[in-house]
Amino acid sequence: MKILVLGAGVAGLASAWYLARDGHDVTVVERHSGVALETSYANGGQLSYSYVAPLAGPGVLPKLPPWLLRRDSPLRFEPKLDWRQWRWCLEFVAACTQAQSDLTTRRMLALSFYSRGLMRETVDAERIDFRYARNGKLIIHAEQSSFDAARRLLDYQRSLGCEQEALDADQCVALEPALAQMRSRIVGGIHTPGEDAGDCYRFCTALEGRLRDEGRPVSFLLGTEITRLLHWRGRIIGIETSAGVLEADRYILALGTQSPALARPLGLELPVYPLKGYSLSLPVADDAAAPRISITDFKRKVVYARLGEELRVAGMADLAGFDTRIDPGRIATLLDQVRDSFPKASDFSRIKPWCGLRPATPWSTPLLGATPYRELLLNTGHGALGFTLAMGCGRIIADLVAGREPAVPLEGFMLRR
Predict the structure, then answer these.
(1) I need a labelling partner for 100 at 20 to 30 A (CA). Which of 55, 233, 246, 297 fits?
(2) DSSP 378-412
(3) pLDDT reading at 238 higher than 70
(4) Helix/strand/coil for 85
(5) Average pLDDT of span 389-402
(6) Mean pLDDT, rounded, of the chain
(7) Contact (CB, 8 A) for 401 and 1
(8) Alpha carbons 172 and 152: distance in angstroms, whole number
(9) Strand segments (E) across 309-351
(10) Residues with Cβ within 8 Å of residue 39, at least 6 apart in sequence
């Protein structure tokens, strides 16, 4: 088949990867001059397969009022005159139940473990260089109550296939000596050895290189703005772009936060809204002072990933519309936190700040698969887990195009009509 993949972020490229392996004639259409220049560019770097529980959960609601009132809070809400923002918020609140959280977690773990297997298979077969490390992850807790709650979840998580162990503060420091500076505020941690890390941008450019160089039937239309999906009598008949009208047998919508605007004229209301996240990339000045294991500070909601000789620090979630400008205050908060946690890791003179719009659904589950238009498939709404879920979602898209049964059930991931 002739297939157009709309979007060259990690979701779109993973889709193209598996579609090309099936022998389809694939073209990737992207408005930027290169691949992965938006949300996939400088994300947190953690491939967090065992930590895919939804943002919406019963423990979130009591935290929302104090979070929303603090400028340095992990989650910040900036009200807009946009009814879609308010509808997203109401659906998010409605999803904050234990039953919904448990159901979503089970579904997401099945997808993330499937994606982990495919990622590792691809890395081993293709020898892709993207600062990849199977280094595990340690979530540190500064409060006894949150650590106790995390320990209570261990048995449940194990029943779903997670390999984890609870560590006291001294064991955390023994596992990751760079934590010594913050030993006094650690009460314990949860270690998950099966987690990975990598540079998402480098992964995307490596996939692009393989797709261009190895004779796979993939072409790239970069610098090409997509303005409209053309439909007639219940069918998608093409896309209108700055390079003219393009036609195909199938269209994969993988445009992140831009997906709803393109789908809306078709009568499709995609429940995807931006959550702006921030990151810093820091050159490592002292190897022993920068963590080797991926670290998540549970209280501050900040993640640290070692990417070769660079430390990626990421966090924050701003529900603030489509503004892509970097907020200096949020960057200052991240910088204060990394200086406090790992003060000798970098000289902090060459930080690279970044922000991106994560395409989030209220339930934290991506939108995958069919739409009322046979020609149009969805691969969007991954939130903060686009890198983690990309390979699994890309393979599912290829399976659906080929008429194969996906390895992961799609219940809970398909568009709610």
Answers:
(1) 297
(2) EEE-BGGGHHHHHHHHHHHHHHHHHTPPPSS--TT
(3) yes
(4) helix
(5) 98
(6) 95
(7) yes
(8) 18
(9) 310-319
(10) 9, 256, 257, 356, 357, 358, 359, 386
* Rounded distance between C-alpha atoms, residue 75 and residue 318, angstroms: 6
Residue 406 token pair: 């996906």
Q: Measuring CA to CA, which residue among 1, 15, 415 is closest to residue 255?
A: 15
Cα distances (Å, whole numbers) of residue 123 to 117, 129, 136, 195, 237? 10, 8, 17, 14, 36
What's the chain's length in residues? 417
Which residue, chain included where needed, has tokens 């984890």? Answer: 164
| pLDDT tens string 2-46 | 999 999 999 999 999 999 999 999 999 999 999 999 999 999 999
- Beta strands 273-283 and 352-360 are antiparallel
Question: Sign of the CA dihedral 55, 297, 200, 120?
Answer: negative
The partner residues of 276 in beta bridges, in order of sequence, read 318, 357
Q: Which two tokens stand for residue 123?
A: 């890395």
Q: Which residues pair with 299 in a beta bridge?
A: none
Q: Which domains does the chain have, with CATH numbers?
A: 2-40+202-269+364-402 (3.50.50.60), 48-196+273-360 (3.30.9.10)
pLDDT of residue 160: 86
